[in-house]
User: Fold this.
Amino acid sequence: MNLKATLRHLYLGHDPASERFRYGLMTFDIVTICFFIVSSMLPDARWILLLDAVIGVVLLADFWARYVVATKKSRYFLNLVTLADLLVILTLFAAAFVENLAFLRVLRALRLIRSYHVLRDLRDRFKFFKRNEEIIQSIINLVVFVFVITALVFVFQVHVNPDITTYVDALYFTVTTLTTTGFGDVTLKGSGGRLLAVIIMVFGVALFLRLLQTIFRPAKVRYECPDCGLKRHDPDAVHCKHCGRTIHIETEGE
Assistant:
């Protein structure tokens, strides 16, 4: 079996060995996402640089392997997840040549985009994720949104704002602003900072509250009513709330 056939077997096969390999990739994705979030809040250290290099090599190998097994290679580089992974890989290897490591670590928040791909795989394999997909998707959207906004605040303010010297400071400002708490002890400086604050308050707060509403609203199941087309119903619904038709939602029983 040649290398391409072996890679296709591991990435696309359905036997236990292929399943274990892909579970390993999913675990690696989750671990790296958590590491990038935590390391962005930590001071520079030699062990972080070493882990960056190791992760960079693994991501590069995975990036190349996915390209090899891709059926339409031209579209491979047009995928948002692929582009995000490529940028993350570049930041990992650029750490040896760039002094502003904090900025590079903030860019690695793009690795959060991979979480959507991981959720899709988990949904296909586990009933729990399929049953709670909407809530989990909303949580991922919320986490990605908060950390992307935090990254923007950090990048634009770290060198001009004495109140924002670490990623935690930027995260603190972002959360207090999005939750409309607004203690006022940390503010953005300069015209660009004030404009960014306006954007966060106008668009960010509305989206943030919308995501929270999606997470905490009562759970619904997807079932399209044959008469009126209503697609979301209570798990124990017998009749459609919109038109009253008797519906038959499949349940696993208690």
About this structure: The chain has a mean pLDDT of 80. The longest strand covers residues 221-222.
